[in-house]
Design a protein that fits this description.
Blueprint (H helix, E strand, L loop, with lengths): L6 H13 L3 H14 L4 H13 L3 H15 L5 H13 L3 H14 L4 H13 L3 H14 L4 H13 L3 H14 L4 H14 L2 H14 L4 H13 L4 H12 L4 H13 L3 H14 L9 H22 L1
């Protein structure tokens, strides 16, 4: 069999390069493949994706447009889904929604299309319509964790916190160590100020999943609120488990600041902002550091005056 005409071998070789992180090499394989298979959907789709991975938005968009044109020749659910996904990639939400709705015209139970439509309505902040489509998924798969998570997030945005918690609790019944459901429930309980339920959530989670970085951070904050230096032990545990956990660095910095350990607080804030420039919702980072240095100098001045 001629390798150059064997599309399966071309796709496999490109995929093998991608698994190794060799994106340029994979692109070269796909581009060579187009010479003998100029209208191959998989090759064009892979090129659109790999150019997006390398940050070449123009070429990625060009291949998405070529893919959309090819999909227009075939109105099967598979091609409509692919068309919708490409339209989403180039931010044409209106036409993407139309493509997904055509999939549902052919098969009202198509779960990928229902997910995509629910996500579009979630982005538009039409949470009721989003949940309507998620419910159609849950009628087929009552334990679909992603649908339950998204439904809970929608209810939370609608300030129906009881319904949101029911969704997260359902996920935790199915998967007791589910990190996202654990985090979302914790955030919800913090938001509504249900301290007793939050403490119970922390206690129960640490028994089931002692390596949950988010819950360990909440335990650290519980100690911090009680002015207990065990807070630092738990902040450090959370960071050891997840070194990219900017929220743990940010809250640790806040505790260190209250303890007047300003140099350490500044370093923790710097680490938080290095991971996530928007950590803690702080916009004026320079202003924060200026304030910390002022507090540090004022503390030094008081100490000198007292000596």
């Amino acid at each position: 069999m001629d390798y150059k005409n064997n599309i399966d071998e071309i796709l496999k070789e490109g995929y093998d390069y991608l698994k190794k992180g060799l994106i340029d090499e994979a692109q070269e394989i796909y581009l060579n493949g187009l010479k003998t298979h100029p209208d191959n959907i998989s090759l064009i789709n892979n090129l659109a994706q790999t150019y997006a991975m390398t940050g070449d938005k123009r070429k990625s968009k060009d291949y998405h447009k070529k893919l959309i044109a090819l999909c227009d020749k075939d109105d099967s659910p598979e091609m409509l889904m692919l068309k919708g996904n490409s339209l989403m990639s180039i931010n044409n939400i209106t036409d993407a929604l139309e493509a997904y709705e055509k999939v549902l015209d052919k098969n009202p139970q198509n779960i990928p299309a229902l997910f995509q439509i629910s996500a579009i309505f979630q982005e538009k902040e039409d949470f009721e319509k989003s949940n309507k489509h998620l419910n159609l998924i849950l009628l087929q798969e009552s334990g679909n964790v992603l649908a339950l998570i998204n439904k809970g997030m929608n209810y939370s945005k609608m300030e129906n916190y009881q319904k949101a918690q029911e969704c997260y609790d359902k996920v935790l019944e199915i998967s007791p160590r589910h990190e996202e459901a654990t985090r979302l429930k914790g955030e919800l309980l913090k938001q509504i100020g249900d301290e007793d339920s939050l403490k119970e959530h922390i206690k129960k989670t640490l028994e089931i999943n002692p390596d949950s970085a988010y819950i360990i951070m909440l335990k650290a904050m519980e100690y911090a609120n009680a002015d207990d230096d065990k807070a630092l032990e738990f902040f450090n545990r959370a960071i050891a488990i997840d070194p990219d956990f900017d929220e743990a660095y940010f809250n640790k910095a806040g505790y260190l600041m209250l303890k007047k350990r300003f140099d350490e607080a500044i370093e923790c804030y710097k680490q938080a902002f290095e991971i996530n420039p928007e950590s803690g919702g702080i916009i004026d980072r320079e202003g924060l550091f200026e304030l910390l240095n002022q507090m540090k100098n004022a503390a030094k001045g008081r100490k000198y005056a007292e000596s």
